[in-house]
Amino acid sequence: MAAAAVSEAWPELELAERERRRELLLTGPGLEQRVRAAGGRLPPRLFTLPLLHYLEVSGCGSLREPGPGLAQGLPQLHSLVLRRNALGPGLSPELGPLPALRVLDLSGNALEALPPGQGLGPAEPPGLPQLQSLNLSGNRLRELPADLARCAPRLQTLNLTGNRLDAFPAALFRPGALPLLSELAAADNCLRELSPEIAHLASLKTLDLSNNQLSEIPAELADCPKLKDINFRGNRLRDKRLEKMVSGCQTRSILEYLRAGGRGGGRGRGKAEGPDREEARRKRRERRKRECGEAEEAWVDEASRLLLRVLHVAENPAPLTVTVSPGVGDVRPFIVGAVVRGMDLQPGNALKRFLSSQTKLHEDLCEKRTAATIATHDLRAIRGPLLYAARPPQDLRIVPLGRREAKAKDLVRQLQLEAEEHRKQKRRQNVSGLHRYLHLLDGKEHYPCLVDANGDVISFPPITNSEKTKIKKTTCDLFLEVTSAASLQICKDIMDALILKMAEINKYTLENKDEGSLSDHEVDAIPGQVSDPRATPGAEQAGSAPLVVEQVRVVDEEGHLKVVYPSKTDLDLAAAHVTVLR
């Protein structure tokens, strides 16, 4: 009787065992109650699936600890994702040893400390010897375990964003401790000092320490041989010249400035006195003028001051409106929209960066589209007003991205067949691409869709957009939508994050425009288009113009306002390098 009760409570485990699956995803509204009944832990039966390579348990507010048996029962685990749960204040028992684990995501929990016995695993021998990616962002950590580098010596990516750290452990930067670490993110913490020993991270390529309490940047940072991208925005640096540079200059210029000793600090301090010191300063000033240029300095001030400008409905001669049909309330009730003008996606891989950032938001904030779904459209291909409605699968027709026109019923069936074939070939529970989101439509008699004034379906969340409104390199004005079955606030938060990312991408594109011009291959890939600044309205002024975010109203069928985005409380960004003009 007890075994039957377990099977009924955890049918996913029985299915995974029967089909010898290598991937398992546990999420959804019913998970919380089942974990609570198991004492805030994962069920012991989960740890009797030794073939598992991927395990994800997300969005469960009652999961306080993984429970004993994980390390012993899942020896082949490659990826462990336990994000947006309630793990903390420590991990009891500790996770490791997990000899095959490569990816560990513990983001969005309530972890405060990871001491020996309640942390990631032992240091001797290493508990996570193959770990490459560790995500601890969005917790309450005040310190990192001193033996982190010994526990995970092959770490390549470390994300510590959004904790309460005031320092890095000295052992993290000792020579040879983390020889493969290429990405270190610790934005939005309380870091007061960065050790010069960071120069021992020989593989470091990306460093994000924005929005901390740093007052100095060690000159030794310039000795990191592979460092390509740094972010120190939002720190009050003593060297005001350097503070201005980190808000806009390229990484190369900042590192050269540090290498030269900076102004009154770094390795140059105390080495030049009297006339010699004055001469050294003069040479450094000349070098900085050549590298950043007076024009770039002016651009830094302007770009920091004019990054995002909100155009209110009352100021807009032709505002876009979305009307919500009552039928969508039972399917996917929440939607917000916005129009963004002034994106420059033509140079280099700007479009690729934009699409990649959208994918990352879907994976992280959107929780693989279970919390919300983003759709981006070429505004020129849309005719407003728009209608957000729910239709029976056999009545909803769309031209999906990269596919021919089809009824939603036929499209979903085709995707299901593709997914099943993929599972048979790979012997995996999870699949890639659009197939990962089909379960979100299970049991739905109507599917949500966004329709323009021509009657064309431009969006079928959470599955796909329309080929008609596909973003291209020539796209400069975009319509953005975020839909959710969970809450309106989630839509707004994700829209904030998307627009901030677009602003950062646009700023980066402008900084590197000369280096990122279109290759011959990229130009050929755009039929009938020539790389001409006149093709993008306002391109000549792009260096001094902000992105314009136009408000979009969402109303019911009687015209009553449901939501307008961005409102006064939206885009309330804490990022120091962003200014929103309203």
Automatic annotation (TrEMBL):
Name by which UniProt lists this protein: Leucine-rich repeat-containing protein 47
Any Pfam family matching the protein: LRR_8
GO molecular function: phenylalanine-tRNA ligase activity; RNA binding
Domain B3/B4 tRNA-binding: 331-507
Superkingdom, natural source: Eukaryota
Lineage: Eukaryota, Metazoa, Chordata, Craniata, Vertebrata
Coiled coil stretches, renumbered: 405-432
GO annotation terms (biological process): phenylalanyl-tRNA aminoacylation
UniProt region (Disordered), positions on chain: 260-294, 516-543
Compositionally biased intervals (Basic and acidic residues): 270-281
